[in-house]
Structures are given as C-alpha cells and as structure tokens.
Specification:
single chain; globular
Length: about 220
C-alpha cells in the first residue's frame, strides 16, 4: 500500500526529521537459520558473511509467535534493526497520513493478529561526510569499519546518534516520510542503516508504543 502526500524538508528551526530511538525489540524473524532474510530477499539475495541484503526486499517479513502472544502498537523485531512493524490499526492511520510502503507481516503458526511492515527506502547517495564519520567511528570504537570479504561492501562501526557527525544528506530527502541511509553500519551479523523519520510519524509511533520508541533530534548540516 503506497499513499503519497506532498511535503518538504526545511533547514531552519526544528528539523522535520528525527532519529527514532529503540528501547526494546519484540518478536523473532523466521526462519532462524537465515534470521528471516530468506523470505524477504531470497536465498541468494543476502550475504552469508555479514547479513547485508544484496537486493531490494521482494518478499514478506515472516515472524514467529515467540515473544508475541499478542501484538499492539509498533515494534522492531530482534536482529532486524531497520525494520518497523505496526499493528494494523496503527498501520491504517499511518498510511492515511504519511508516505509509506506498507506490506503485510506473515506469521509462522497461528497469527496473533494483523500487522504491516514499513519497507524503508534508502534515499540519497551520501548522508555523512566520510572523514567526519571515520573520526566518529574511531573515537567510539577504535576502528572505523571493515569491508566484508563475502560481498566486498563497507560497513561503518556503529556510532550512537548523539555522536554521529552532522547529517549531510545528498540529495535531500524530498517527499518521503521515512528514509534509510545509503551507508551501512554494524559488526558481525549486525547490519543496519541509519533511519530518519518525519517528526509527526515519530510522534505517532512513540505515542502508540512508548515502551518501544522515543525519538531524538539530529544534527543537520546546512546544504552546500
């Protein structure tokens, strides 16, 4: 389901986009052998060395019942830190207000209810100055990152949002309401992208699930 609306990003005053803070995870992607990646990207659609997808998502997120006897609000499953799930009533409200690509969540076993996944698009060619991000990564972790021997792609070491350099999004986020960075972060099988959420959408998610989400301001660099 894709609903569009017109919006714009501004650079003065409060940023229209914020970082959605994760307080906990709920639910386990299925099957465990692929951390849920096989149904989403295909057996040949993700890297066995680092877990990064090699293509856009083309199949469903499949969740098991473990840890989700009932579903409510919004949540992020274990192991997939740039995936957001919405209980269907929240998904319907979000779809009516925001530009979102929503896909039904499938369940292994008897479903505890209806839910949708937000498929978050990667937007832009660069979100951070590479030298600034390298300095932040080394300052936090002692190293900047590594290139995967399997897929030859670079991942930066994780850096908390408060320690990230200013976001220099090129080109701008345009009319989307949620976006993922072109840069990948992580270590081992922990692979994720930075995600920015339009403030009103972040408020909706945090209000629907205060035990799961909060949100934080981010440093936006002035356009060059």
């Amino acid at each position: 389901m894709l609903i569009t609306r017109r919006s714009s990003t501004h650079w003065g005053g409060l940023n229209e986009f914020v970082s959605l803070g994760l307080k906990r995870n709920r639910g386990w992607p299925w099957p465990e052998s692929s951390y849920g990646l096989d149904p989403m990207f295909g057996e040949d659609g993700w890297c066995r060395d680092c877990g990064m997808p090699l293509r856009e998502q083309r199949g469903p997120l499949v969740l098991g019942r473990k840890g989700l006897a009932t579903i409510s609000g919004a949540w992020v499953p274990y192991g997939r830190y740039d995936i957001i799930c919405l209980e269907q009533s929240i998904a319907d409200e979000a779809a009516a207000r925001f530009t979102l690509d929503l896909r039904p969540v499938e369940w292994r076993g008897f479903p505890p209810g209806s839910a949708s996944q937000i498929v978050i698009p990667a937007v832009g060619t660069q979100w951070f100055d590479a030298d600034e991000l390298r300095a932040a990564s080394i300052g936090r972790n002692g190293s900047d990152g590594a290139r995967c021997p399997g897929c030859n792609r670079w991942r930066w070491m994780p850096v908390p949002v408060v320690l990230l350099p200013p976001f220099r999004i090129e080109p701008s986020l345009g009319d989307v309401d949620i976006a993922a960075s072109p840069e990948w972060f992580g270590d081992g099988w922990n692979s994720f992208r930075e995600v920015l959420v339009r403030r009103e959408l972040a408020e909706l998610l945090a209000e629907a699930s205060p035990r799961d989400f909060d949100f934080a301001e981010v440093k936006m660099a002035s356009p060059r």
